[in-house]
From TrEMBL:
Keyword Hydrolase: no
PROSITE patterns reported in the protein's UniProt record: SPOVT_ABRB (PS51740)
UniProt lineage: Bacteria, Bacillati, Bacillota, Clostridia, Eubacteriales
Domain SpoVT-AbrB: 5-50
UniProt cross-references to Gene3D superfamilies, sorted A to Z: 2.10.260.10
Record-given protein name: AbrB/MazE/SpoVT family DNA-binding domain-containing protein
Length: 86
């Protein structure tokens, strides 16, 4: 992990402000979602990218009943359903 040397206070609501330069560098825009991880005593923020619930792929993701599924897994599921119905 690389230190940026930036220190920000936490406000009374528990919020912090990410510096504009950092947001620009990491391509984080208004309304983007950040995923929060905890590792030992560190809080790690990552730009959220939806991934397939079956294989973890981040390519060609679609939502099905609030679940992220990639097109490859959808094709596999459709093929399996077709085979089972025969």
């Amino acid at each position: 992990m690389k230190s940026t040397g930036i220190v920000r206070p936490v406000d009374m609501f528990g919020r912090i402000v990410l510096p504009k330069e950092l947001r620009s560098t990491l391509n984080i825009t208004e309304k983007d979602s950040l995923e929060i991880f905890v590792e030992d005593s560190a809080i790690i923020l990552k730009k959220y990218q939806p991934s397939c619930i079956f294989c973890g792929s981040m390519d060609r993701i679609s939502k099905y009943k609030d679940h992220n599924v990639c097109h490859k897994c959808m094709e596999r599921l459709a093929k399996r359903l077709e085979e089972e119905s025969d």
